Amino acid sequence: MSLVRFLNVAKEYPRGGVALSHASFQLHKGEFAFLTGPSGSGKSTILKLIYMEERPTAGDVWVSGVSARDASRKEVSMVRRHLGIVFQDFRLLEDRSAEANIAFALEVTGTPADMIRQRVGRVLTQVGLASKGTALPRELSGGEQQRIAIARALVNDPFVLIADEPTGNLDERATRGVFQLLRDINTAGTAVIMATHDLDLIRRTEYRTIELNHGRLVYDSAEAPPVEKAPSAVSPSHHDENPI
Amino acid sequence: MMVIREAFSAFRRAPLLSVLGVVTIAFSLFAFGLFGLVAVNIRDALQTIENRVEIRAFIADGTPVEASSAAMGDIHAFPEVLSVTYVSQDDAYARARKELGEFSDVFEPGVLPASLDIKLKPGYRDPTTVQAVANRLKSYDFVDDVRYGEDWVAKLYRLRTIATLVGTGLGVAFAAVAVIIIGATIRIMVMARAREIEIMRLVGATNGFIRMPFVLEGFIQGVMGGLLALGLTWATSTAISHSFMRTEFFDPALATAGVIGGAVIGLLGSTFAVGRQLRRL
Known about the structure:
The complex is a heterodimer of chains A (244) and B (281).
Chain A: E1 2-13, E2 17-28, E3 32-36, H1 43-50, E4 58-63, E5 66-67, H2 73-80, E6 83-87, H3 98-107, H4 113-126, H5 142-154, E7 160-164, H6 172-187, E8 191-195, H7 199-204, E9 208-213, E10 216-220
Parallel strand pairs in A: 3-8, 3-9, 6-7, 7-8
Antiparallel strand pairs in A: 1-2, 1-4, 4-5, 9-10
Chain B: H1 2-13, H2 15-50, E1 54-59, H3 65-76, E2 81-87, H4 89-100, E3 115-120, H5 127-138, E4 143-147, H6 150-191, H7 194-202, H8 207-243, H9 252-280
Antiparallel strand pairs in B: 1-3, 1-4, 2-3
Helix pairs in contact in B: 1-2, 1-8, 2-6, 2-8, 6-9, 8-9
């Protein structure tokens, strides 16, 4: 089942030129996909189009059947309640505890208080930080802060977890931990789409890889034969089908 | 429930910013309140002078009291007329002696004519209306002459018109400055919480839901700022009354309107600032 579908999508900014053109791909239930390519290649644009922060200039994006072109503001909010979003800079509220940061995602959707307590406890355990619920973000390491951000993304039981360079600010050890956590989340059934520059991470696994260059989708390991392979980044070993 | 908790927790989380908001609203409204105080006192002073606008219709000698009494009923029925008083020759003489003080011996008894002294209702004291009523009084046979101090009424009316125009102009300018300063402060406060707004949007909060705590917070700050401004204006008014000259303070309705004004500015300021922030994100 296709959770996310891009069909001939283009995105142009009035003053920023073409960020994406002719992009078509689908993300299926339970899939793990890397999104890679040099800076400015359109990775973040694709993610923003998925969580409907941006609307396509041409073509269309469907997320859980909702068209990004036609979605009302209310529909965008409803779609986001089924997405988990993680950023390189964590985006935690510095003046709230880890628990409060996670609970915040449920409070704004009107979840009852007893359910919030229960679900926050569950995701804190899931990300391995059950003992750090009362800590403020500044009292946590970078890796721990990213785990809290992932817990916040997970607490709504999303069907897709969108991760924009989630290991970009982390050291190698923390990167491995966070990446393993994302794999575990995927194994449990949540689709993950992760933008990254980290070719080592990509090479270490056999997950699907989508490569972008200058706003064009130049390689998708789920496609056979590959389209117009870019000379740079990804090794041929990543042409394998998604194993999940 | 979360909306109310978030609105109040903003005061706890960023007390300095919240105090800045309340103080800015208070001082902006205080400046407006001081202007209002001056305007109210000028208005009251002009009102006191205006209350003295009077038309005096002098009655011809030998007119029977019955004739003037019958006319009094007619005149009282004029829509512009507030009161009609019959002043006999003796009363006129007594009044002249009283008003002239050391020159009270100038007149002999019986020299001054009897008159009908007519006061007009508020709103009918402008030169045109006063003259129209005077002309109607002249049409009575027993009326010898009609006086109402044309120049004085015209000057008073001009002064009142100028005071109203200047007062309205300055009032609008003061109010605009207050709204701009308060609006800018609220915008800074909202921008300081841009990340919070951004996260709320990303986790699926609707724009209406995001707005509510900010709008409520703006309202609370507006009420607090309005009350503080009212207290400062009252303290200033009392200090002036004690040490310089007696001043009138706002009546309860006007004071309440001031606080409500503060609340509305706070509420609208927050609504616009969050809306702007939401469009920007």
